[in-house]
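User: Can you fold this complex?
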Amino acid sequence: MHNFNQSKFLRYWLTVHLLFLVGMLVGCGPSGEPSLPGDISQDVGAKELFYFTWSDYVDQELLDGFETQTGIKVIVDTFSSNEELLAKVQSGATGYDVVVPSDFMVSIMAKQGLLAKLDHARVPNEQFIEPFLRDLPFDPQQEYALPYLWGTVGIGYESSVIETPPTSWNILWDARYKGRISMLNDQREVFGMALRSLGHSLNSQDPLLIEQAKQKLMAQKSLVKSYTSDSFDHLLVTGDIVLAHAWGGPIARAMQERASIKYVVPQEGGTIWTDCLVVLATSPRKAMAFQFMNYLIDTKVAQMTSERLLFASANRLVKDRVAAAVRNNPAVYPTEEVIARMEWMVDAGEAMRYYDRAWTELKVH
Amino acid sequence: MNNSSLRQSSVLLLPTLLVLGLFFCIPVLLMFGVSFASRGLYGGIEWTFTFENYQRLADPLYWTIYGRSLFLAGTTTIVCLAIGFPLAYVMARSSARMQTALLVLVMIPFWTNFLVRTYAWMFLLRTEGLFNSLFMRLGILDTPLELLYTNGAVFIGLVYGYLPFMILPLYVAIERIRPSLEEAAYDLYASSFSVFRHVVIPLAKPGIVAGCILVFIPSLGAFITPHLLGGGQSMMLGTLIQHEFLVVRDWPFGSAISFLLMLLVLVVGVPLLKGRKLWGS
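Assistant: Here's the predicted assembly.
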């Protein structure tokens, strides 16, 4: 009897370990191992493309559309900050073909030699890109990046609690909303916001200014419920928070679930950004990759993207074609007046060290 | 041991040695090397030899994290033991049928991915979540409690996640103790407390040690729980390592912290294991 139980127990114990191992292997397996290496000429035989993008940008229907058109299956993996993207791509052979860095990250990745040059002939839809997204310092010669979606950073808020629209970032320091505020989990955005609220450029490289911003953010930390880049929309809808330092798109989606949620860009201004499609230098499927990029900014596809993901499309024909509710939503398409007070983020160069250090200090305390 | 049996056992050991060498020793050695390198401007690894990463570990900035990790892992272990021991005792002393049923109940959570179960906790703990709405409806609370994204939430998640690892070894150990020993003690007029104190606990010690090791070590380096239930607020060693690797892209320093974690595990684990041998004999 005694031994019988013990052997039975052993069986259970082994099963648990096996289940555990299987779970770990399934959970951690690389999602983008290239199955068919080769150069462009071999693209024809390959039927899979590996796409590494923001968690907000995934829409299966759009990818299925590409598969029906071309027979190429797009396999998606997601990240939630530019730093995460860089860290993963830097670590070497990632197997990804098309990735979506934001403006300032394009220049960092290009400097590191991580990007393939754009083959303009393969992306004819490039002619439809908004002119104001084309002459920007992160890619002055338009060598690498194809702007895809763009937008602003602002404040998403619950208007039944905050009745007058906030005009300053300083509302995120209001003790009345203690524990009901969320901040982006993104060092440049958080510091950029604090710097703007102090009247400085969000690209400040002076360690003293960065320190000043850090002090201000430290004072805010006890009010913050969470630093999150991918669930603030959800937290607003469930009522966990009433103020979110946020990207416009997810707020626009939250509005569909809870109409009392609103979006505003404070008077001090903030970040304007554009996420760009780029092909990695290591991609063995560049022809397919450009074909996919061209598909994503095709006017019809881009219109569908803008309406479904609720981000502004870089294709200039799209704004006039999307539903009026999307076009007039300030969280999706900012007005000219708002665009005028926004600032592009640029690579902070050597000052990245100060940002990295200050961000760690903020998160640790 | 003669020569042929030595050869036989080395053949049998080969797969294990290969797996250990390939998937454990080589990566660990690589990381050890990286921990003496320095970080490039954009986060690459520059192969200059330096002790700076280990010196940085002493920075008071990180002491909060070490303290929090040790405290949370320690209390998790103690609470798991306090909850797990009575449960394991009842399990070990029930009928064979009941034992199987209870074991299955302990195992069932493993059938669902740990990540999914942690998300379930997020739903339970949020402001408009199950606990808060229930307490408010019952009139116990007026305003919802701040549950999610606190040290408390991380603690609950850790206890929940690692409790089975405490129960199972305890159950094995207690099940081996013959009930007749306890009866003998009662016959000699021992109180229930002294039976527990002088018979059950000493005999269950190997199980207690194994359980504590199995709970303490993974909670010390836990990542998913503090990441999801701590909301980027309550950093622990596991989240700090992730932060260094993926957010600030300082691989050399991240590697140095990983070695600190291994050292902490050794400092706690080795004496426990040694003690276990003593108790076993």
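The beta strands of chain B are 38-39, 45-46. Chain B touches chain A at residues 41-44, 61-62, 64-65, 96, 99-100, 103, 107, 110-111, 113-115, 126-128, 146, 148-149, 168, 171-172, 175-176, 231-233, 235, 240, 243-250 (CB under 8 Å).
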